[in-house]
Hints:
- This protein is α/β, with parallel strands linked by helices.
- The chain has two domains: 14-252, Aspartate Aminotransferase, domain 2; 255-375, Aspartate Aminotransferase, domain 1 (Alpha-Beta Complex), CATH 3.90.1150.10.
- The chain has helices at residues 14-24, 33-43, 57-67, 85-92, 111-117, 137-146, 198-207, 242-252, 255-273, 304-313, 329-332, 342-350, 362-375; strands spanning 51-54, 75-78, 96-99, 122-128, 150-154, 162-163, 166-167, 174-178, 191-194, 212-213, 230-231, 279-280, 288-289, 295-299, 351-354.
- Strands 1-9-8-5-4-2-3 form a seven-stranded mixed sheet, with helices on both faces. A three-stranded antiparallel sheet has the order 7-6-13, with no helix packed on it. Strands 12-14-15 form a three-stranded antiparallel sheet.
- Helix 2 packs parallel to helix 8 (242-252), helix 3 crosses helix 7 (198-207) and helix 9 runs parallel beside helix 13.
- Pfam families: DegT_DnrJ_EryC1 (PF01041).
- Its EC number is 2.6.1.92.
- The active site is at residue 183.
- One of its GO terms (molecular function) is transaminase activity.
Amino acid sequence: MAEFLPYGRQSISEEDIQAVVDVLRGDWLTTGPAVQQFENDLAAHTGGTPAVAVTSGTAALHVAYAAAGIKPGDEVVTSPMTFVATAATAALHGAKVVFADVEPDTGNLDVEAAKAAVTERTKVVAAVDYAGHPAELDALGEIAHTTGALLLEDAAHSVGGSWQGRPVGSIADLTTFSFFPTKNLTTAEGGAVVTPDAALLDRARKFRNHGLVRDRAEQRYPDEGGWHQEVHEFGLNYRLPDVLCALGSSQLKRLTEFKKRRAEIHARYTAALSDVDGVATPPSRPGADPVWHLYPLRVLEGRRKALFEHLRGAGIGVQVNYIPAYWHPVFEDLGYRRGLCPNAEAYYEQELSLPLFPALTDADVDRVVDAVRAFF
């Protein structure tokens, strides 16, 4: 049988390995110079917007909501077409999560749905760049700012992309990234928060490091001694170690190459599948320059599960991204009900992610295409 094709996979080079080895042989495994280097290197891809490296994409969201000051009674408007963490991390701060429906073609947060969902209690509108295609960031930012809220861009899928000529990370008030192995670049586990706002940046940095205040000018009892540090607001340990930051800096050198190959694979799928009755290929909006993290094929007429099983049986590791977030029992137990966002539910019922990662060869892509076409 042919080799199993996963839907996503890390791309690790000898240079990546050497970068990690160099840190292991040095003096700093964590809280050292490789962290600052990675943050600087990442900022070069976000239009210069400063970055705070953290332990995962989920940690990035938790830190971003903390920086935004989310507390019980606040509302966060977000998309259900996302991994549960986008909503869960807001709920863990005590927020009421308000799910707004998505655009039927992109799976991204719908502008009119978001506009209808905001209230005077809304503190954050959290858009998700589904599959790597940036959301309607300008319009969503206007909606958020009209009510005094912040725009958070969950860019777990879209580091290296741009919207209307501006790099992802330079547009929203807060942007979060994920560096999980299947993402556009990896630190094994890891993430980052980027923000142009100095106050938000300071809050993010403190929250990722237990809330510690080491600057004497900010301390309540600065004359205690040279060892003194204080906690003014609770935080957590979300520090990304030097070992993983070194991997991230090395990976960033190939982000442009990764993006190019992902685009080639995406285009090859689209060219080969556009004429297949029974599927719909993913669109791209004018002004969007995606980094395609997923290839979200839409399988029509209720045949998604059958195609999933057919492809898995052929050794092709397709995946479904995602169950609408409020379908999870944890939200069901809070009173959320199916039917809340019809577009998102229709998208989920059809979505099937085909394998997409830089090391995928044209022959691999053709194997997937042949298997899809054979099914139909």
